[in-house]
């Protein structure tokens, strides 16, 4: 991925993990799993997607869309909830095993074709999932406000945000549950033994302030496709893209993401390995057509919501706020309010009835677009432009 990504890749892998949820005594139910971001290894603190907790809510899934629901305490889920977190070790060892003691990280490796010495029980223990507990469920109010404004009007029926293809058979209840949990995340406490707590160390994760990363900036996504399925190959899979567009804390990227990467961290190369966002929805469709963009929730406002929720809960949990990663200062040459490149102002949206497409403003009141976008000369054409100040304007055309 280039020299600029070396440090960012190491940070992303060290911060990546997979979270699985199951019911005690019911192995046939579930398990449910997603990706997560390690905020602290010792003590263990993980932020992941909240969708896997919907089946365990005592008050039912409807509580996620209740008026004024911003966060829910850890005991809002049933007692039979069992959580485990699996993350990669802090150093690579021989094939088939892992060791500690040096910087860097490698995901667990699959066994090679050649038989080798069996890994010691101690080494196998390093890769075992660790028990965890739910501290709180929370949503980002700013994310929900922008999502409702963009996708909550009469065009909402044309959009689908789910972890399955739009043509797959999914019940309306399942699809509604996924939509309810779209902007919800979970803070987990990972239970470590004394020896593990002393040995588990990792670099501190830094968070980019909202608006610090300009449109078009390269991004690196670290998530586990298909969740806890086959972590030997899928744990902490990397994907690269750019910041495709921004609407407050609602971000879009063209980085390739798959079901199971919900909750995975999105990082930037400058400053190296800075956390920008978490994956909210890896796949989306419009009018039953797949849209190759991933929906993200900015990390900065999400962590502010975590701090606010911890402050309103029990005093013992308020101390956890000190473990949350801080927002970094804006580096030189990376303005908070980026005016955007000149080509961005020339791109417009052209609508002609139910047909829509992109266009380029080549002169005042003159737009070039594909012929199929405006199939009928007499049809009314609407051009939507987005100037640098992000005040969308509409212009009738012909």
UniProtKB/TrEMBL annotation:
<keyword id="KW-0576">Peroxisome</keyword>
<dbReference type="GO" id="GO:0016485">
    <property type="term" value="P:protein processing"/>
</dbReference>
<dbReference type="InterPro" id="IPR039245">
    <property type="entry name" value="TYSND1/DEG15"/>
</dbReference>
<comment type="function">
    <text>Peroxisomal protease that mediates both the removal of the leader peptide from proteins containing a PTS2 target sequence and processes several PTS1-containing proteins. Catalyzes the processing of PTS1-proteins involved in the peroxisomal beta-oxidation of fatty acids.</text>
</comment>
<comment type="similarity">
    <text>Belongs to the peptidase S1B family.</text>
</comment>
<dbReference type="GO" id="GO:0031998">
    <property type="term" value="P:regulation of fatty acid beta-oxidation"/>
</dbReference>
<protein>
    <recommendedName>
        <fullName>Peroxisomal leader peptide-processing protease</fullName>
        <ecNumber>3.4.21.-</ecNumber>
    </recommendedName>
</protein>
<dbReference type="InterPro" id="IPR009003">
    <property type="entry name" value="Peptidase_S1_PA"/>
</dbReference>
<keyword id="KW-0720">Serine protease</keyword>
<dbReference type="GO" id="GO:0004252">
    <property type="term" value="F:serine-type endopeptidase activity"/>
</dbReference>
<keyword id="KW-0645">Protease</keyword>
<keyword id="KW-0378">Hydrolase</keyword>
<dbReference type="GO" id="GO:0005777">
    <property type="term" value="C:peroxisome"/>
</dbReference>
């Amino acid at each position: 991925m280039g020299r600029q990504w070396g440090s960012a890749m190491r940070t992303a892998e060290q911060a990546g993990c997979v979270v699985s949820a199951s019911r005690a005594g019911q192995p046939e139910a579930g398990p449910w799993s997603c990706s997560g971001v390690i905020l602290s290894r010792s003590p263990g603190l993980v932020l992941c997607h909240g969708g896997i907790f919907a089946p365990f809510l005592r008050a039912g899934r409807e509580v996620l869309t209740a008026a004024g629901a911003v966060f829910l305490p850890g005991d809002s889920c049933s007692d039979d909830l069992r959580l485990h977190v699996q993350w990669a070790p802090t150093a690579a060892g021989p094939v088939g095993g892992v060791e500690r003691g040096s910087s860097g990280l490698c995901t667990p490796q699959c066994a090679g074709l050649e038989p080798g010495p069996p890994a010691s029980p101690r080494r196998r223990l390093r890769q075992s999932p660790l028990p965890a507990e739910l501290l709180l469920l929370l949503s980002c109010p700013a994310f929900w406000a922008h999502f409702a404004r963009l996708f909550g009007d009469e065009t909402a029926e044309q959009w689908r945000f789910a972890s399955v293809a739009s043509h797959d058979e999914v019940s309306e209840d399942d699809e509604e549950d996924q939509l309810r949990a779209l902007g919800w995340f979970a803070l987990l406490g990972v239970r470590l033994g004394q020896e593990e707590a002393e040995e588990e160390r990792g670099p501190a994760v830094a968070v980019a302030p909202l608006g610090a990363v300009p449109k078009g900036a390269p991004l690196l996504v670290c998530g586990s496709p298909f969740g806890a399925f086959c972590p030997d190959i899928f744990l902490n899979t990397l994907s690269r893209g750019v910041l495709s567009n921004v609407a407050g804390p609602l971000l879009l990227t063209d980085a390739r993401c798959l079901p199971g990467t919900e909750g995975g961290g999105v990082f930037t190369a400058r400053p190296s390995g800075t956390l920008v966002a978490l994956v909210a929805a890896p796949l989306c469709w419009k009018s039953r057509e797949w849209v190759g963009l991933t929906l993200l929730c900015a990390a900065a406002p999400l962590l502010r919501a975590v701090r606010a929720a911890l402050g309103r809960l029990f005093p013992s949990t308020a101390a956890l706020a000190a473990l949350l990663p801080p927002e970094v200062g804006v580096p030189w040459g990376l303005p908070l309010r980026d005016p955007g490149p000149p080509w961005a102002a020339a791109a417009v949206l052209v609508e002609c009835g139910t047909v829509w497409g992109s266009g380029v403003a080549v002169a005042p009141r003159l737009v070039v677009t594909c012929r199929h976008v405006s199939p009928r000369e007499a049809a009314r054409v609407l051009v939507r432009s987005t100037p640098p100040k992000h005040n969308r304007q509409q212009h009738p055309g012909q």
